[in-house]
Amino acid sequence: MDGIQLKKEDDKKEKKEEEVVHLRREIGLLPAVCFIIGTVVGSGIFIAPKGVLINSGSVGLSLLVWALCGVLSLFGALCYAELGTSFTKSGGHYTYLLETLGPLPAFLRLWVEFIFIRPAVASYVSLAFGTYVVEPFFAPCAAPEVLIKLVSILGLTVVVAINCWSVTLASRTQITLTFIKMFALVLIIVPGMIALAKGKTENFQNGFEVDSLTLDRLPLAFYNGLYAYGGWFYLNFVTEEVINPNRNIPLAIICSMVTVTVCYVLVNVAYYTMMTPAELLLSDAVAVTFANRALHGMASVIPFLVALSCLGALNGGFFGAPRMLFVGAREGHWPPIFSMIHIRRRTPLPAVLLLYPLAVLMLITEEIYQLINFASFARWFFIALATLGMLIHRYRFPLHPRPFKVPLIIAVTFTVVCFFIVGLSLYSDPWNTGWSCALTLTGVPVYYVTVYRYRLPHRWSRIFNYLSKQLQILLEVAQQEVQTY
């Protein structure tokens, strides 16, 4: 009888632990690798390698730029692997700036990410999804703009619903979409390699002609390349949900970035095998032009695969970015409602839902193209600050546990290159960079009024608290009951 009673008590205890509200560690090595690859590989590699070619001036140099962009992205990812294992909180950029440089830079990163950058990027990617779904049905005529936007909003809604429903479903969706987009890359690489093996090398002869190269345009080639590699930092947004992060974060980052770099270079080799540089520059959708040339019967499949690739990038963004807002709210830098999770689904529901109306609004009003131009400056500036903060933290706290430590030369090289990119953008595009800087600085008075010294009138605070309580009841969300870091 005593044994039966003990078993019942253990069952009750286990049930209580299951019912505790907190984010679970459900992301293993394969989902982590797929999460990074699925977020990095979006529409860029399929439609716009010509940005690298037109600014580098030659086939050989453009391939070198693709390889160097991959190496630089790997350097940055390795720095973030150290940061992710040194600071076990989720939140990515925000957390690392908070831990190394203080609350104001961290708040500004949070501010610019969720007011401007993240909704703009989500709108841009969903619009690319809608374009590739709709346009094949209307070719060679132009597709109705309203229909493209409706399909874009539908894709956005599906991704938001998946990320609200469960972490497991979002993770499995990302794995599936990653395998589909890797299949698309293989579909391009294999015919290109076969043609190359058969001796189709005329486009690579005199590949390093530098007559058309100008040094002021070469950085623009790197901008295009680095944009295609963007997203290597997303796993750091969900550190608290990664199983055995000290092992899986560095391993996932290295595996995924090496895979992406090799694939990107081979895809570009395949493009140049089947198309001359002039033909590539004339194409607005390089992958579709390649498919018409090399795949014939399967050419119609490519736009569909590119659309799914965009959906994967969108899913990765909505899976990772809300965790930054979740952590920011937990630290008191955002309203507390956004630090809550659904009591049954265990997803950061309010943080995910906040992005949705902002992204839809930008998609409808078409302000995204202007905001996308602002995104590069803010992104690289704060990444540079995060890696600089890592170096400062190393110097100030040499005994702090660092399960993974990146070589100093890699960290310094990456930080210097990031600041160089930021400085160059100030010189080459002062208007957009100036606006980006101004938009970022609008967060300073907000920080001092709402965070540093809470100055909102008592009546406003009372109304705000009442609305937050009602929203919490409506969404069925609560604060975490267990510390997950």
TrEMBL record:
Location relative to the cell: Membrane
Provide the GO MF annotations for this entry: L-amino acid transmembrane transporter activity
- Pfam families recorded: AA_permease_2
Coarse class of the primary localization is membrane
The gene for this chain is LOC115028186
Protein name according to UniProt: Cystine/glutamate transporter
Q: Which organism is it from?
A: Cottoperca gobio
Cleaved signal peptide residues: none
Classify the protein's membrane topology as the record does.
Answer: Multi-pass membrane protein
